[in-house]
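Session log. Operator J.P. requested a structure for one protein chain; no other inputs attached. Running the standard single-chain path with token output.
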Amino acid sequence: MKIVLQKNIDALKAFPWRKCAQFMLSLPILACCGANAGASAAKSKEPPEFNYQNPNSALDVRDTVILPDNGKFYSIGTCPPYWSGPNPGVKLFVSDNMVDWKFETMLIDAEKLPPETWYKDRFWAPELHKIKGKYYLTFNCLNESEKYKHYHACGIAVADKITGPYKVMTPDKPLTPWPSNDLTLFEDEDGKVYAFFNNGWTDVHRIYVAEMDMKNLQLKEKPLELFHQEAGTWDGSGVEGSAVVKNNGTYYLFYSSWTKGYAVGYATAKNIHGPYTKNKNNPLFGAWSKDGKNVAVRYGKDIEDANFPFTSLGHNQFFTGPDGRIWTSCHTYATGHKDASMMIDPIWFENGEVKTTAPSYTPQTSKISAEMLKKFPGLGKESKPKDK
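Structure written below.
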């Protein structure tokens, strides 16, 4: 019995108690490290954020339109020179991350058009719309020559790919029956497509709508006037630049005016043909200059900010943003910049009213939805806005 007990005592003495204690003491540290590693892994799986800052001078077009498609972001607009001189036509720009933009191709090259073409000059406010798998290019032009002079009006072209080639479906005469501008398309939930445009070049500016025949690319009905400029209000100088979204059965028709600087407002209706009611807090956003200082406008109120860079901004359109919500794009003019620049910001709806962060000019951060990141992986790439 003593021999067995002595053997047990010897075995206990031989056991590496110090190493065991050290191992036991290390367990909390290992657990902590494991937790940190798990947290780091979880953090690394979080979607990256989209960082941007307005204005983005990488796009020097007016009337900026953005169309996300096939993993990239495409943009067109009125190219410089905007008002006079030989306008180049319709240029297509592309970006992986919606910050860094580059020229892609010419959709319509004005130099290659015959001199008698009615849509030879200016190319104001072109737009791209993807409807039922096809790409529709709208444009607004005239012929300024003495020999082939033609009034400013709206045209439309179609292609199977966003980069073209585009076939002009209004080669002999415009889509619109009278002098007009700023053609846009809206596809309703029932698949019907409508054309919105304004007349301009008259004593009273009006915005019209007409259903489209998408097979023949013609108007199916006589254009109906929706509303016009109103003296003594924010849109007293004129109305232009239609853009339409639908939310919870209500049509939101956005438009711009240059009465004070340049700004964007909207009107609403339950039927696409109206009647439309202009929002009481118009303009939704905009900018103007007062006594040499730039003034921001939001919800109909002036916001004086000594650092606000914009002298005017407007003519907006809509696209799906990095967070999957509706975002708006438009052009801006900033102090010290000769040409226009791009502005983007999100919009949303609260109790039937449109809300927005526009016009922002400080660094902005937005979440990137998993769906958008999957469709547009370039959104996850680090990039900084161009120097302004």
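Operator note: The radius of gyration is 29 Å.
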